[in-house]
């Protein structure tokens, strides 16, 4: 395997396993590790300058969210997401973020609420521009703000783990943003619900935008 992962230099407070997971995941996201590419823990460990144990653990974590396929004794490789996996990821994201938004609007400070409204405005602006990639990137920033505003360690920890799969499986996948783009007024309704802390309405509108019940 050609060396594509620079060695890890840990800074204070950095957890080795998390850094290995992030490095391999980011390489999958940016295409440095392409769909179908074989992954050998010994090669990855050598490139990152770590032992094989954190690499194996990272690959297992990546498998749980569908970024890696492992057939014991046969292969470990980067997965190639199909429409079923993308659709499953989209449904998960819409339902999860609906719940997170409901919690955030009951727990967030006024300053955090203002940040959520601002992030909503950015999504509205991206929808008006009709660029699916821009819509997705603005939505990711919005979802990040929502998750932080929940003040819930389980929510933030889980989405941190799942975010690689969400970004890999949904960025550039038109169905995830096509429906919201066709419902541009819905984003304005969502913004209003957020600004008024109407958690029930915000969750309903978010799910409506992504065509889930």
From TrEMBL:
Pfam family, one: FCD
Record Gene3D superfamilies: GntR ligand-binding domain-like, Winged helix-like DNA-binding domain superfamily/Winged helix DNA-binding domain
Keyword Transport: no
UniProt xrefs under PROSITE patterns: HTH_GNTR
Domain HTH gntR-type: 14-81
Protein keywords: DNA-binding, Transcription, Transcription regulation
Full protein name: GntR family transcriptional regulator
